[in-house]
Amino acid sequence: MTERHHERRTMKVSKYLSKHLRHQPDRIGLTLDEGGWVEIDTLLAAAAAHGFRVTREELDHVVATNDKKRFAIEGTRIRASQGHSIDVDLGLPPATPPPYLYHGTVVRSLEAIRTEGLRPMNRHDVHLSPDRETATRVGARRGRPVVLAVDAGAMHRDGHVLRVSANGVWLTGAVPPRYLRFPGPH
After folding, report:
1. What is the mean pLDDT of the chain?
2. Burial profile 139-149: b = 16 or more Cβ within 10 angstroms, e = fewer
3. Which stretch of 27-31, 148-152, 155-159 has the lowest confidence by average pLDDT?
4. Could you tell me which CATH number the domain at 3-80 has?
5. Is residue 175 within 8 Å of 138, Cβ to Cβ?
6. Could you give the dihedral angle defined by the CA atoms of residues 63, 67, 70 and 73, in that order, rounded to the nearest 10 degrees?
7. What CATH number was assigned to the domain covering residues 101-181?
8. What CA dihedral angle connects 103, 108, 113 and 116, to 10 degrees?
9. 101: Cβ contacts below 8 Å, ≥ 6 apart
10. Given pLDDT bands bounded at 50, 70 and 90, which one contains residue 186?
11. For the chain, first and last CA: distance in Å?
């Protein structure tokens, strides 16, 4: 298998896992527990039964090499680290954020964000990045990126709950416009 083919296969497996561990487990007959976990053997069997064979080695490779640490393995179980559109409780305790977090978006979204703030849209939480570089990459997935700074320190002081996922993404229910900086501090 060529290196390029191997990389494409890894990406395909990662996207498949994201789709079925974050959004549509029922499409392949999976039932996730309340924390979003499923037995690895059950996942592999369900994928194979629906025409997408994944070896345990491929799965371990995707989990180990994913630059965003999208998946977590605990014992014999796996789950997506965050980004679910289905109802799961990741069991993350509230955490004290750094003074500023960042959110990558695109110009066409700015008008709505100025009015409504950041909302989770089809996800459970708004995702915030710990640094500008990560936020820039997130925004760039949808066009020319714009990075907004979030006054996370003030949000925390004002009683907003923020949590941090296993892969370092900060999660919160919403970010009202008053906590946003267009663009943020340097």
Report:
1. 90
2. beeeeebbbbb
3. 27-31
4. 1.10.10.970
5. no
6. 30
7. 3.20.170.30
8. -150
9. 128, 129, 130, 149, 150, 152, 162, 170
10. very low
11. 45
Return d(Cα 127, Cα 111) in angstroms, integer. Answer: 19
Q: Is the pLDDT of residue 153 over 50?
A: yes
Whole-angstrom distance, CA of residue 88 vs CA of residue 21:
10
DSSP 71-127: EEEETTEEEESS--SS-----PPB-PPPS-EEEEEEGGGHHHHHHH-B--TTSSSEE
Return all residues near 178 (Cβ < 8 A) that are at least 6 apart.
117
> What are the tokens at 81?
């680290």
The residue written with tokens 């936020």 in the block is: 135
DSSP string, 135-177: HHHHHHTTSSEEEEEE-HHHHHHTT---EE-TTS-EEES-B-G
Residues of the chain with CATH 1.10.10.970: 3-80
Dist. CA 10–CA 80, nearest whole Å: 16
Q: What is the pLDDT of residues 28-49, one digit of tens each?
A: 999 989 888 999 999 999 999 9
Distances, alpha carbon 182 to alpha carbons 103, 105, 107, 114, in Å:
11, 11, 11, 9
